[in-house]
What we know:
Layout: H1 15-26, E1 34-38, E2 55-59, H2 69-81, H3 89-103, H4 106-113, H5 116-126
Amino acid sequence: MDxxxxxxxxxxxxxxxxxxxxxxxxxHNPEELKIVIIDNAGFHSTKNxxxxxxxxxxxxxxxxxxxxxxxxVWQYLKEQFKNKTFDNIKELKLWLNKTVKTEINNENIISxxxxxxxxxxxxxxxxx
Length: 128
């Protein structure tokens, strides 16, 4: 786990966007296996989508966001967001984009989401 990360800004969520995200993500460091934890959101439907060979999906049980590392990243961003005001959505987007580029670095990602539970689970599930 080196903390490398991939961000992709989109407006909206649906299955087509999710599939396009997985394709774009698969091309980021294409030689590595990517394990994506998904919840039960409707747009995470995997019916009739093309899953890139270097991506494996793990679906977490319903109502268990604490198992999703992405939720920990969102919590970190929310802490940065606290007590800030913006005059319009454009300012908010600019702030968020800048914050992601400056705060979401390899070291922070490791400190936010690293968990021996996940490392051991991934090794067991995928024989890594």
